[in-house]
Amino acid sequence: MKKLLALIIAFSSFTVAQAAPPTQESIEKLLKVIQVEKTLDALRPKVYGMMQAAMDESTKGQVISPAEQMILDNFRNKASAIVENTLTIDKFMPFYIDIYTKSFTQEEVDGLITFYQSPAGKAFVTKMPVVAQTMMAEMPRLMNPMMKEMQKATEEMQQELAAMNKKPAEK
Asked: I want to staple 108 with a disulfide (CB 3.0 to 4.6 A). Which of 15, 73, 79, 104 is the partner?
């Protein structure tokens, strides 16, 4: 009986040890090897570009006076400063640590660190930005047929609703 109890206790402590949450230090190491800071650095220009595109779209076809342009430029500068101050590793680190702590065990984080330090892992980190960029460039080609079908379905729905509203009320 004592042997069985000892075995159960040993197994329980082994299971608990296996499911231990990762340490902050190990998560920080993982984030460093996956170059998360570079990802944030690369994100900033994309956000600036989206902001500029939105501003261009909102003023498209309008004649902008010099005074209005000054206000728009001032806004762009303020918005850029907000992005610059927000998309930093210091601001995101607590977020990453919280999410990774809730999502991974120490054993998993250790395994990820080992993988990302391997030649294959380093290649993955290096090439994923290009893969993601290529995927985004190809997305319209894949999404346009779906969007056309959705537009057609929307038009059909609108026609059905219009036809229903033209019918006299049923008694």
From this structure: 104
